[in-house]
Amino acid sequence: MNKDSLMHAPEFVIKPRSHTVWEKQCVRLHCTVSGWPDPRVVWYKNNVTIDPMAHPGKYKLESSYNVHSLEINRCDFDDTAQYRVSAMNSKGELSSFASIVVKRFKGEVEEALPMPRHGLISEYGITFDTHIVDGFGVSFGREGETMSLGATVIISPNLARYQPEVQWYRDDVLLQPSKWCHMHWSGDKATLTLTHLNKEDEGLYTLRITTKSKYETYSAYVFVRDADAEVEGAPGAPLDVKCQDANKDYVIVTWKQPAVDGGSSILGYFVDRCEVGTTHWSQCNDTPIKFARFPVTGLVEGRSYTFRVRAVNKSGMSRPSRVSEAVAAMDPADRARMRGTSAPWTGQIIVTEEEPAEGVVPGKPKELEVTEATKNYVVLSWKPPGERGHEGIMYYVEKCVSGTDSWQRVNTEIPVKSPRFALFDLAEGKAYSFRVRCCNSAGVGEPSEATEATTVGDKLDIPSAPGRVVPTRNTDTSVVVSWEASRDAKELVGYYIEASIVGSNKFEPCNNKPVKGTRFICHGLVTGESYVFRVKALNAAGLSECSQESEAIEVKAAIGGGIPHASPTPPYGISVLECVRDSMVLAWKQPTFIGGADITGYFVDYREVINGVPGTWHEANVKSVSDRAYRVSDLKENRKYQFQVRAANMAGVGIPSLPSGTFVCEEWTIAVPGPPHDLQVTEVRANTLVLLYKPPVYQGRDPVNGFYIDIKEADAEEEAWRGVNEKAILTNYMKIKILKEGETYVFRVRAQNKAGVGKASEPTEPVLAETKPGTTEIVVDVDDDGVISMNFACSNLTPDSKFVWSKNYEEITDDTRITVATSGGKSKATFNMLAEDDIGIYSCAVTHTDGAGSSYTLSAEELKKLLELSHDHKFPIIPLKTELAVELQEKGRIRFWLQAEKISANGKIEYVFNDNSLSQGEKYKMNFNKDTGVIEMIMESLLPEDEGTFTFQLQDGKATNQSSLVLIGDVFKGLQKESAFMRKEWHRKQGPHFVEYLSYEVTPECCVILKCKVGNIKKETVALWYKDGREVKGDEKLTFTEGVLKLEIAQISKKDAGVYEIVLKDDRGQDTSTLNLTEQGFRDLMNEVFSNIANSSTALKIQSTDEGIRLYSFVSYYNEALQVTWHHKDSAIAFTDRIKSGVVGEQLWLQITEPTEKDKGKYAIEFHDGKDGLKRTVELSGQAFDDAYAEFQRLKAAAIAERNRARVAGGLPDVVTIQELKALNLTCNISGEPLPEVVWLKNEREIVSDGHYVMKLEAGKYASFTITTVNTADSGKYSILVKNKYGTESADFTLVVTEGKGDLGVTSYLTDADGNVIIGCKSRPTTPTERRKSVTGKKMQKRKDSVILQKPPEEKEGKKMEDKTDALPKTTDKKKAAPAVASRVGKQETLQQPITTADEAKPDDVPTSEKPAEKPQINKGKNDQDE
Questions:
Q1: Using omega within 30 degrees of 0 as the cis cutoff, is the peptide bond preceding 1234 cis?
Q2: Using 50, 70 and 90 to split pLDDT, how confident is the model at 1319?
Q3: What span, in angstroms and rounded, lies between the C-alpha atoms of 264 and 416?
């Protein structure tokens, strides 16, 4: 197998876990790493490699079978860091991280210090037993006194030459022999002598005796009280004076404020310095400073100094503090190059340096910043420049007031040597910027970058007062005091605890050295007395206000001397939450009876079980733990242990629980999480309850990402467990809503991570689903000031009951969002400033009750409602039904009005215009109807100065409201114009007027009717119509039926465009209405006409003609301005000679001549009306086209036959009367293709042309018939017969020959086509052509007309003649006109008649030229046809 295939990069099978441990305990980080080749493992602390050889006994590294561990012995604060383990081989590198946090307790006795992990090696196989007897107890001393602490030590076996290691610790800090403390070991007794007590000596002292086998410790607390003040009322001395940040000519001195202020506030502090080797003390500051930190400048480089501090109040100066350790004024960098030693008899430090090179102007200082700012001084710090040569450098500091460009040098005389500088004499409240320059013998360098503007003032605030203080009984002379830490305290130094006997009102300090914890044992109390306690916090800025006083507590021993049965009953249900190689996390359930007071903590004991035999009990924790879970450390892997737990309250520590089951201390490596713990049930109701729980301590391979809740009836089998939630929840609480009233349930919780669901928690105690009598819920209230609060009341309180408010079931400890106030059985949680950050579930639980509690869910919707309600309560408003509005009334009056929904009779209204109050008067009329809430103000008219804002301000008690209306610009002008118009309208309507002005209406018949409606008319009222200023005649009789006047325009056209006007007037006045029907107005009217025409159109139809196919549609009325468009296949048709469109009457048609296949398709006619128009369509395709085309072919053939058949085109008269011996010539037109044959007949017999009858055919179209000399035998019926292959046609006339008379000449009368005589002549046309030119007729005249040559005398004018022979005149006397000779050739007629003399004529006989020609009677024959 290829080895490379087995190689892989390192991988952490088990990663190191983070730990939080107590100081002086041991901790182990371990991990399992896989990889090939075997990875090399390196441990780092804050990215610095850990070297066990550089710290003997501190670190221990182990590696075995890919399991690697780092063990840290006796953890201290410096061990708090991030640790990294790196595994690397040829395939790669991988790292994993873990953090260690080291915690520390102050102010309490710690019975034992942890022993080393792997005990000390026995000397020559001997095991030593060490016992400390006759130890020292809690001791009290006073400043200036001497105190000795000692204890007897018994070591067995007792070897004369063997001496144990004896060490003394104060507050876990190893003490070294000095002038302040002397140590002595006599072989069996260890003694520590404090030669001159100061408050710095107060603390917990521990004697540690170490042998080769093991060690033993003994501890007790030493209290140091202030010495008597030299001046009565002066404060106590400061303490713990230290020097920090020492440099060439500068050092910062810090101290801690005393607990005793002498009865009045401390005004400040004075710092003194003394050069080592002298006894002269000089004061460093001229005025007292309140800040417990002060920069001392002006030191001489190379000399050593000590410092002390004195406090001052209005009574005087305190004693000086203990002097500080000596500190040398020198550059820290110089210490590394220093080659001299200090002279202890003078304190002078001799410094020698290398010879400097040639001078170089130094560069800019770097990283200038303001490290400290108070109202007395500002401290600057920086780093030297990189370019400075070998010569020493000094610095000049410059300042600039913010907002200016003026830089001022601060240290003009002496440059400073240290990269630190303190500036005094700055104006408090002003902002400054600073910069620094370097200088040496070569010159002054460029300035550094300026700092940001810094305002002179204290940056560090005095801490807030500590929270609730709880005392707990301890011994007959001591009390354990616990308190809540100060919130948001910065650079906290510690706390001072004060005690006062109840009723004395005099507080004494319990400690004179600040403690950092939140728990302290106050010793030296009087047994049987009752005390109250309070706590103060301090930092460099000063001491806080005192906390609230605790409840009074009587000093008695907690066990044995307390109240019987007042301590809690034992906890129970001990279980393991996590197990590693050397520790186990335990959990337990709260005691069923807590002793009438809150449980203040728990104590855990453990013992080892070897071969089933339990060993001796050992305390796992000296300090009580408040949680019901605790990690027991320093156990041995794979060993078996049992545990017991005791609960404590203010009455003392109760009896221990029963021993737990036996648990094996072995590493848990399962991937899923451990069980959740600390299940609590609250807010029990008939159908719901809330289950609280804590997440598992053991997370598994991955973090926990959800929880499942299980439920079952209390008496059901294990198989009855069922889930409440199908989907995992992320919260540590759940409201369960599936309970049945009266049923008893138990619950459990399971956690899950990516690997799966872990082990279930221990089940809860059985819970009965019922709503207990007296149960109340949280009530949300909004008071009149808009303050929103949650209120909860409980009637079954006990003296120790307390209301505990929580958000999302975590107790509310921050009062920045909610303020809680409790009085009696009621508690109120008030929102300080309700906002989105407050959304959540709020609950209130009452301790020492039978589970009294309730919750309230503040959702986003509820938040919005509450904020609106709060605003309404805080700023109550008078509700309005309508806002301020304006309306116009009769005569153009302007009414401003609004209506209040609810307002009392005491309501007040103020009317405001442009911030000026208005009052009742001639211009303004105000009215307030208190019954309806309507408020109004009326103005007669609007003037230009009325432009602005009108406001109605309402007040009804506390409630107010206002509504404004802005009338400016176009809005005001529009209202003003409308008001003036309405005023004018009112005056107009006092006489005859138009109710509806002139408008038009288009009827379905496309008739346009102009109409208007009038009112207030009487009989004398006159209406006049005008068009373009000229009067037009409307209806002849003007009626005012229903007050409507109309003018009808039939068949409208462009000439009807114009401006129409109607004037209505009588003695009361007149009114005018105008309608503009020009340009766009006329186009709109015509478009409406066109729309009516379009709507009246019929469906498009298909008609075949002899020329082609015609599409047509009929309309009810056609207007020549109508625009239509014909479409073929949705495209407009371009007209040609073959495709044409037109209009005949009311028919609109499209003619397609000689249609083809391309003409098939969808056709449409589109009517344009200026809008959407209208289309009529028809489909000319398929069968429709085929049928139309076949019909077209048929009609075309018929038309050709009709057009080419033989026919007599010219007309012959029906009857011709002629005198004997006259010549008769008749001519008619014939047509036909081919040329027809012509035959003349007489009495149905063919006539042959001879000398008497002459028959001719001229030019193939003129057939003439001539009788040269007419005689009576010629009378009869004559016919002309023409025929060709397309048909035959004949024309007849009757010839009547009368007896001949004298020739009086011939008169020729020309007639039109209808036979009307139009002119007379005395000469006869000589030729047929001339004769044809003498008479003209219309193309469409009738054939076989009988022309009346003379009207019979007996008939009246205008009477029609009889047909044929009856139509001949009946002669009554000699003067009757002779029959005329009529000659007709084709379309031309020649009428000949004798001339009648003037005296022979009757009076009514007038020349034809002076009398209108009468239409002669035409007798039509059976062959008459229209051309």
A1: yes
A2: very low
A3: 39
